[in-house]
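[retry 2/3] Flagellar basal-body rod protein FlgG: previous attempt timed out, resubmitting with same input.
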Amino acid sequence: MLRGFYTAAAGMMANQRMQETLSNNMSNANTPGYKADQGTMRAFPELLIQQMGSKNIPTTSGFKIPDGGHVGSLNTGVYMQESIPSFKQGDLKETGIGTDLALVQNAVPDETGFLFFHVQDDGGEDRYTRNGNFTVDGEGFLTTNQGNYVLDENGDPVNTGGLEFAVTADGILSVENGQTFTLGLSYSPDAGDMVKEGNDLFRLSEEGAPLENARGNDAISFSIQQEHLERSNVDANRTMTEMMNTYRSFEMNQRVLKAYDQSMQKAVTEIGRVT
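[retry 2/3] Flagellar basal-body rod protein FlgG: success.
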């Protein structure tokens, strides 16, 4: 009985984690460049149930030999193993704002590879983003909305001096005084190595392959569209359906848990009562 109790509880915990992931996706459905998380469910190891018994041998001494047989396997529950971002390209939205840049990935050497804007966090560490909703700070540097510097291909902050600048399709930024910058675009051979940090920032995992300069590989094709933003790749309708299914699954496990609880209560209060 207790095994079933814990199995139902494990299912509820997995459903809760999945619901949290889906809720976070839904809340970021309108966040530019956001990549939806996909939760993966895994089953705990199965147990093999075997019948144990003995067989009587027709002898004068009543000799017995062990006898058993396979009953079958028993699943011990489910858990949410991990949450993996989906790096599918989002649709473009025209904003008419000059500091908005959309990075469009046309072709990469491998289907698992992905392109990012190269930025710098508050601690001076390299970070990467797909959210091109940029702005210009008081010192004239191009930054994200959280104040992270946007870097050029040499890893230096881009100083536009103001809001008036132009960006070509291949990522060359030109300001009014004629100065030009080549925006830093990084390519990850395996986007699965990228870890979300919040505020639309990604970092490279400790086991991940180092990112490459996107312009150093002829097999990479991209374009940058100024006055556009990449939308979130969250499918709102599908996410709502998955949230409803997860909630129903949670309710079913909850009913099973309640039934086990009532059975245990009856066993404690009624079975074996001395009358």
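[retry 2/3] Flagellar basal-body rod protein FlgG: The longest strand covers residues 64-74.
[retry 2/3] clearing retry counter.
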